[in-house]
Fold each of these.
Amino acid sequence: MLHVADTAEGGERWSEALERGQIVHFPRCPVALPEPADQDFLRGGLAPFLKAKNVSWYPRADRLTGVQAAEAAGRAHRILRAHALRVRAFLEGAMPGFTRGWEPGTSSFRPLEEKGRALPAHASNELVHVDAGAYGATHGDRILRFFVNLNPGRDRVWISKGSFAELWRKHGAEAGILQGGLEPALPGKIWSGILKTAGRAFPMARVIDTSPYDRRMRRFHNWMKDTPAFQSGPSQRFAFAPFSAWMVLTDGVSHACIEGQHALVDTFIVPLRNCRFETPYQLLAGLSA
Ligand SMILES: [Fe+2]
C-alpha cells in the first residue's frame, strides 16, 4: 500500500495511487524545506510558547493558532505560510486535474511526541482510524494530507489496517454503517448552504455543519477507535525517515501515528467530482459496483 513516488512518472500516477488507497511516499521531500535556522526554531525555539498540541496556519484568514507570544507567533506564521504555499504550488503543478477547485486547509506543525500521549480515544492519533470530517462536514469531498518528517534523527512511524474500501467491506455491517440513501433531504441542503456562506466570515460556522455522509464516516471512525479487537488485529507498519514526505487521502486509508515528533502537515479538501475511482461516498451511497 506504499507507492514510492518517482518524480519522473507524473502526478496523474500519484493521484491514481492516492485514490486507490495508497500512501504516496517521497524518500526525499520534493518541496524545499524551511531554512535550517527556521527548522531549529520550530523544533526547539517554539516549545516555551506552545498553547495547543498543534501550531496551525489558516490560509483563508491568514491566521496562526497555537503559539502565545507575539514574536514567536510571528516567526512561526511566516515559516508555515511559506511552507504551505510551496506545498500547494507543488501539488497543483503535479496534479492539475485532481487539485482543480480544491480548498487549501491548515498548514500545521506537530511539535509533540506521538508515542504515549494518552489522549482520550476519539482524539488519539495512536489508534487506527480513517479521518471523518475536516473543518466541518465534507459531504464526500476528500481529505488530502501532505506530511514531512522534520525530525533530523528519528523516523515517524505509522501503522495501517488497510483502505477504507477494504475495511468497510469487512467491518461496515458490524459497525452498523448503513448503505444507500445519502442524498440529504432538502432542509439539510439549505442548512449546509447557509453555513457554508456564513463560514466565509465565521470559520466556526462550518464546524457545526454535518450530513448523512459525514455522520456515517464519524460513526465508522469512532467504531474503529472504540473496538479493541479491531485495534489489536494485524497492521502494516511504515517508518518514514527524516526529511522524507508522504501524502495520503486520510478518509480513504486507515492510519495511526504511533511514534515520532516534529512533523509538518498540510491539509487540502479535494472536490469529490475530481475523483476518477471508487470513493467512500460511492461505497456508503451504495453506488459502487
Ligand atoms: Fe487521522
Amino acid sequence: MADTGPVPLEAKSPFELRVHLGDGVPEQTVREALASGDMGFLHSYTTGSTVDGPGVRIVVWTTGCMWRCQYCHNPDTWTITNGLPVPVTRAVEEVSKYREGLKIMKGGLTLSGGEPLMQDRFAAKFLTAVKKLGVHTTIETNGLFGERLSDAELDSIDLVMLGIKTWGTEKHRALTGQPIEPTLEFAKRLAAKRKPMWIRFVLVPGLTDDPDDIAKIAEFTAGLGTVERVEVLPFHQMGKFKWERLGLKYALEDAVAPTPDQAERACDVFRKAGLRAD
Ligand code: SF4
C-alpha cells in the first residue's frame, strides 16, 4: 500500500507503536474532521489479515478510544491525534485497489481501532463508500457510540464484530472504565435489524474467567439470535511494551495467557448456549 508522507500507512503489524503522527494538525481542523468525516485519523492499515473477520481482509485501524481496558494491547490508539490524518477519499482509494482480490478471497474491509465510532462520521462515510465498491464491510466496535450510526448507515455494514468484555455494571466499569449498558443496547438494536454479528470476548485468567459471568454473556448473546460466531480471544502480553513506552500504569504486568484447556472451557460455555465458539 502507498505511503502517506514519511510514515508508511501500512504497518508491518498492528503491534507497531505509533504516536504523535497527527500532532501538527490544528485543533480546529481536528474538530472539523470529526464533524464532517472528510478526514480520518488512522493508526495504520494491515493487508492480508485472516483474523479480523471472514476471509482475507484489509484492516484499517483508527485512533481514538474512550475506554481504558486493562488488557488493551494498543493503548497508542487511545489518542486521536496519535493517528495519521488521511482524507476519506484516499482511504477509499486504498481499499479500491484491492477490491477484486478481496472478493476472490471471500474477504473485505474491517474498520477497527481504537474505537472506530469515536470518528463516527468518518466511519459512516468510509464504510458507505467501500460498500458501494462491492466490498464486504465489517466494523469492530465496543458499541459505546453505536447510537451515533443511523439505520441507513448500519445498512452499509455487513457484519458487526462487537466486544463484550465482561458481565455486570461494576465489573465492566472496573475493567474498561465505562458502562456496559450502551454496548448491550447496541447489540439489541443490531439484533432487531437482523444484523449479522460476531462477539469477541477476551479471556484473561483471574480477570474475565468467572464461569458465571461467561454463562451470562453466553445467555445474552444466544438470545440476540443473529450472532454467527463467538471468538474467545486468549489474553497475551504483546502490547505490554506499549504501556511501558507510553509511561502508563499497567495493571496486568503479571497476568498470564489462558491455557488451551481454559480457552476451551470458555468456548464450551458458549457452545452449551447453542452458539458457535472458537
Ligand atoms: S475498547 Fe479496544 S481499543 Fe479501547 S481500550 Fe478497550 S481494548 Fe483498547
